[in-house]
Request: fold
Amino acid sequence: MSNEQLYWFSYISIAFTIVPFLVGLFCIRKIKTYLLPVFALTFIGTTVEILGLAIASDDTSNLITFHVYTLSEFSLITLFYMLFYKQYFKVGYLLLLFPVFYIVEYIDYKINGFHSLDNFSVTVESSIFILLSLLSFAYLLRNLIYENVLSLPFFWINSGILIYFSGNILLFISDKSLPPADSYLLFLLIHSPLNVIYNVLICIGFIKAKNA
Reply:
């Protein structure tokens, strides 16, 4: 596979980061409750991608934008779970995740700075979201709250979270142990298609928002 073909992976991934925001705008009247943090995340993701491209085109490192996105991503996805589950039980314990993760991100910053991928933070983030998404599926199956979970926006977005973070966690863990060229190649081959799948599932969740 040529370098030009590999770069197309990156461009397609970027495009599919923007698509859910556009779909969300189209479905904006239906988006409410626990879907609002996800919609906010698609807006931030779109902004970060545009800023990242602008910064990179100026031959400047754009990794600082990913640090900002990681903090936003963790906060909003955690809020997504809290808003969904508050109708079933008390979710105050999930608030403990915020200070824990912010401390992790601060440690990551002190070790790696802003000009390196925050692989430690995203590895911890991935571990938390893999666990939350698996527990969510177990909860839905055990309690049979909905007759047809496929009509539930939460099902599709939770599926996207599980696929994206479980597929990428080894990539995040191994980032520092690989040469930059190999790390970037794996990023294109693994992260890009997973990002497409993740964002397609978010789109489906938005389209099914009438059931939120």
The mean pLDDT is 85.
